[in-house]
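dumping the sequnces here before i forget
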Amino acid sequence: MNRNLLNLFAAVLLMFVLWGCNQTEQATLPAATPSGPVRGDTFIEASIGDASNLLPVLSSDSASSDISSLVYSGLVRYDKDLKIEGELAESWQVSPDRLTITFNLRKGVTWHDGAPFTSADVLFNYQLYTDPKTPTAYAESFRQVASAETPDPYTFRVTYNEPYAPALISWGMPIHPKHLLEGKDITKSPLSRQPVGTGPYRLSAWSAGEKIVLEANPDYFEGQPYIKRIVYRIIPDQSTQFLELKTGSLDFMGLTPLQFDRQTDTGAFSRLFNKYNYLNFGYSYLGYNLRSPFFQDKRVRQALTYAIDKQEIIDGVLLGYGRVATGPYKPDTWVYNAQVKTYGYDPIKARQLLADAGWVDTDNDGIVDKDGQALAFTIVTNQGNDLRAKSGEIIQRRFREVGVDVQLRIIEWATFLKEFINPGNFDATILGWTGGPEPDQYNIWHSSKTGPRQLNFINYKNQEVDDLLERGRRTFDQQQRKAYYDRFQEILAEEQPYTFLYIPEALPAVAKRFRGIEPAPAGIRYNFNHWYVPEDEQKYSR
Amino acid sequence: MLQRRQSFWRTVIWQRLRHNRMALAGAGIVLGMFLLAALASLSGSDPSAIDVSQSLQPPGLKHPLGTDDLGRDVLLRLLYGARISLLVGFVAVGISCLIGIAFGALSGFYGGWVDTLIMRFVDIMLCFPTFFLILAVIAFLNPSIWNIMIVIGMTSWMGVARLVRAEFLSLRERDFVLAARALGASDLCLIFRHILPNALSPVLVSATLGVAGAILTESALSFLGIGVQPPTPSWGNMLIVGKQTLGSAWWLSVFPGLAILITVLGYNLLGEGIRDALDPRLKD
Amino acid sequence: MLQYLIKRLLMMIPLLLGITLITFVVIHLAPGEPTDLQTQMNPEASSELQERLRVYYGLDQPLPVQYVRWLGRLIRFDFGESFALDHRPVLDKITERLPVTVLLNLLSILVILAVAVPLGVLSAVRRNSLFDRATTVLVFVGFAMPSFWLALLMMDWFGVRLGLLPISGIKSLGYAYLSFGGQMLDRVQHLILPVFISAIGGLAGFSRYMRSNMLEVIRQDYILTARAKGLSERVVIYRHALRNALLPVITILGLSVPGLIGGSVIFETIFAIPGMGKLFYDGVMMRDYPLIMGILVMGAILTLVGNLLADISYALADPRIRHSQGDGQ
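..and the predicted 3d for all of it:
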């Protein structure tokens, strides 16, 4: 649970990515010839933690999300190029005023228990997500809805008060079965351990703390996936996972940079596995608490950014498997602005900017000071994320070189949130956000989101940014939206409320016997249902 | 009294220790670790100095024990780790001895319901899987080296309390105590001046072994990531990286582990040696 | 004997009370409120929701009232509901994980006994022989061994390099399809490393203890008498001495239970064993208060049971207690 911490906060954003990783249209399926795809075999991967709850409305851990993404479907999803395509919805129409979306649902879809899927299920999910009694982290986007209706069993219509750009993709959230959940206390539902969805796989066994087994759904509406069984083994330690991988007991693992770079270049490993690397959605940052008197002056924040050698962190911590981050968006997306101000490693400039802001070392103790106070603060980060802790160690040293004294505190996640982040009781923090193709950053940067337990915990308040974010989420035209978000990125780059550190690469290794893997902007897992193992290479016959 | 005790220590114990090769080896290791820890302070180098270009260098001339993933010198970090281990070991044991002696003395000296109460408390504390208790408390208090020492101390005093109580029970009926009491010595005076000094030898054994136990506990906690926090080097948290590089950078897992093994071994040998010296029944 | 047993059981009641009290105090000394984390999962949780949760968990009551209520529920084996996202009853979660941990600990106790007793006895009998010296060295090394480190090395060596043993987990993937013999073999293979690692510290301690016990017993008058009577050395050692040297071992064995259970946190995490130690570690990390309290109490009860079993075996083995109608101890 601790490893994928940011998703607790960025839960909504993350869900979009996860639900985006399913499968493509059946039409793109290669024809099943004798040498082509065949059914069978088992795909074994590991999970750091056990799944907590297989009702996606309630869960926020990555293990549960991974499994739910195979068991459930949403109305829409991202395709391999991160464009929105239909899943349970066959097609949809957006009204000219951008306020109403009408979904035409697939016919003949059944739940895993055989019951038919209809628009009543979708309406129920809208009510479920927005019910104040449902303890969910995903209600926000559904709150924008003014009304929802079901003109017939295969049509679902939803109306918004104002145009809402992320509306369409918000219907990528997994749809729960109405006939099993209606009128019951969702938190007590047995479905949290025996989920019933419409997805390509069904839960077949779950031994707590040991493994979760999924079986291919023969009635899946896009056809039964080739791989017959998926096993999630719960192995709480990444090093143990890696040992298991090396012996061939696992078929898939997201490697650490250290493993990817230094521990997999043996002949034995490359005989068994293919390695992939591609840029993730999501970035790590050093966020400054703008309530603190230290960080009021943007020159101080700029100076600190100049003092950090981002490339050194990427080389040292990610062993080169990452890119320098300059803002909240990934470089290869349409919304990314490549023209913003950048800050190369420049300690002299950093000292200069600090001096301009009044911070000079007057007492020759090596630490700059102003009005008798030394520039000394604490960076907090959460435990369980090795990359962040190491980045912190590197930053600590670089800051010291420009006369800034920094303590590093690594705190267990629950305490970290409760005692530092939520009450705004910290100087600076190293954290990360996981995002997706949807560029709406309202929850993280808007001045209305600075309250307790909200995501703008660094207390960033900028009138122009507020305005741009509001316009951005109300605008459907991509060109127009980009103009807003370009300006938004320029302001962030100038003001440096965060020092954007790096975007890490995903580094998966997959057993060689699996075919049909086609790396795309969406990664490699998006077409998992089309992966297969040639008959003579199948490893697990039962 | 003082005189008598000192000569007892000097002659009998020392004589016996000197002829116990294992105890000598233990003492040698313990002393050696002290020297190494002191050396670390004297070297003046920074164990957290990062040099990414030097990462994961195998042992060689420049780095006798290699470097870790951030290019830090393993030998230097081991030496600093020795300081942490010694600090944790001694402070934790100090705390546990203080608590144990206080409870044991009260219990043994006064007897009656005080004794019953304290001993039941000891029984209860002994029922908890200590590591569970430590884990729970550390996680709530946030891991820091001081919290670790306090918690280890507070969960390991029971043995000392029992030992001290037993000594007190037998000593309080001895002639010299009865004599002092007859002369009107106060309870405090009796406890501190007359009984306690004579009850301490078994505590010494238990404390020496306790240091070994505390070092092991600290390293296990740090290994689980809830002990000493980076960048402070501790043998336990160095093994986290060792675990990640198992099979590709053997020096990162072998050396810190050996350091723990040897140090703990040293304290155990010394403790056993002192025990044999104090209780020569088993020796020829 | 029955009377002894009853008395022994009655004595457990105040201990149990004390255990629950200490557990309760430790958890409630922690800063913050248990409901904080739960509502954190839900950024939109209103203060009203938090208040509802507080009432639900009885946190609005004064501490003594909370304690008595909690105790009342414990007596009915109601450990409460986990704070984790699955909201399952704590008791279910524990009972699901308990058997593995108990099995592993029982096995390591068996291994400890099976290896440490002969080792200790032989060392004592052949005192100062090469065997004794070698054992002594091994024992000291074993006792000082950081078990998590040894676990790493052995996983790498036996699991990866030699490929002899499985690295983690408790059974193979195809377990259900194996023959009965195959299943047994599979189980055994998975258990070898964890049991060895969890036993190693105790093994060393015990054989040392056994050795010194044996040495002491051999010196006793009745052994000298037995020797003087002309009994063979075998009979003297294995019939008379061993029996008496074993007695205190039983008690120590009982006392070692909490250490073994506590150690399970480490090796269950390393070997990916779904036992109580791992459950506890996860619970602590998530601040799942009911679960933490439940496992602390459960761990202590296990220890009590261990001690009780040890005392009963002691009583059965030692005629003085067997016949003394619950006097003494």
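Chain B has one domain: 2-278.
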